Amino acid sequence: MDKMRLVVVGAAGRMGQMLVRTIAESQDAVLAGAVERRGSAALGRDAGELAGLGPLGVAISDDPLTTLLQADGVIDFTGPAATVEIAALAAQARIVHVVGTTGMLAEDLAKLEAAARHAVIVRSGNMSLGVNLLAGLVEKVARTLGIDWDVEILEMHHRMKVDAPSGTALLLGEAAAKGRDIALADHSVRSRDGHTGARKPGDVGFATLRGGTVVGDHSVIFAGAGERIELTHRAEDRGIFARGALRAALWGRGRKPGLYSMVDVLEL
After folding, report:
1. Measuring CA to CA, which residue among 176, 126, 136 is closest to residue 267?
2. Which of 182, 184, 198, 221 is the most exposed place for a label (fewest CB within 10 A)?
3. Which residue of the set 111, 157, 187, 218 is catalytic?
4. From the centroid of its chain, how far is CA 199?
């Protein structure tokens, strides 16, 4: 099979540049296009040069539809509004859409589901193998321990991250809720301030830290009577997300349209 032709959206950003480098190093994929927002200072520049690789012959464009029509897949770590737009275009082009965007609202996810009727969409709050294995462990531990153990999720990211809790923290919260057979939305506690009263049984608490250049630290704490279990993942390099996204794109090639996750990709 020919190499998979991939487009990177948000190619001038830190994650976009990492994706460009990861695709360029791959034996199974080739960079077919690079997209940035209108007005970006990176428009017209060679995506490879911007990523520190030297020229790849792929100029950064602000015309996503034309770019996607020449590709087999698109990888997207941007923002909710841009991702929804790309999802509609990827569905039109009938190509694989890998979504690593976080901070999406219910209405955004509904639009992804609609687009997935026509294209393969792989979406995850975190593309790394380690985090998705952690989520599987969290689900199993939550199911085993039951409601008598309190669940708290602590996450820290760099100072520039704009959404909270992180997509990964929410992914882990969903795993804990699934293990308990409850809806996270009904038991999620995002903040505590002042006289809050005692903790309610079954709640899943989130605590958010921001600072420095932290790539991503996540801990899920199960606190019982007289004992505590802590499951932790620390991301040290954004390359883990890029490699996971590339793996998802390659996995999605030739699949039936639908909305998939990294659980499907990794067959967890």
Report:
1. 136
2. 198
3. 157
4. 30
- 3 state SS of 68: helix
pLDDT at 60: 97
Q: Which of 111, 140, 158, 161 is catalytic?
A: 161
Phi, psi of 134 (to 5 degrees): -60, -45
Quick: pLDDT tens for 30-56.
999 999 999 999 999 999 999 999 999
- pLDDT digits 0-9 by tens, 219-251: 999 999 999 999 999 999 889 999 999 999 999
Amino acid identity at 45 = R
- ∠ at Cα 261 (259, 262), nearest 5°? 155
Helix residue spans in 46-201 (DSSP H): 47-50, 64-68, 80-93, 106-115, 129-145, 167-180
pLDDT tens-digit series, residues 13-29: 999 999 999 999 999 99
Sign of CA pseudo-dihedral 72, 52, 235, 240: positive
Tokens representing 23 are 């695709």
Three-state SS at 130 = helix
200 flagged as catalytic: no
Look at residue 21 and give its three-state secondary structure: helix
- Which pLDDT score is estimated for 268? 72
Distance of CA 124 to the CA centre of its chain: 4
Amino acid letter at 67?
Answer: T
Would you say residue 153 has pLDDT above 80?
A: yes
Helix (H, G, I), strand (E, B) or coil at 216: strand
Q: Given the DSSP bridges, would you call strands 29-35 and 60-61 parallel, antiparallel or unpaired?
A: parallel
- State yes or no: is 3 an active-site residue: no
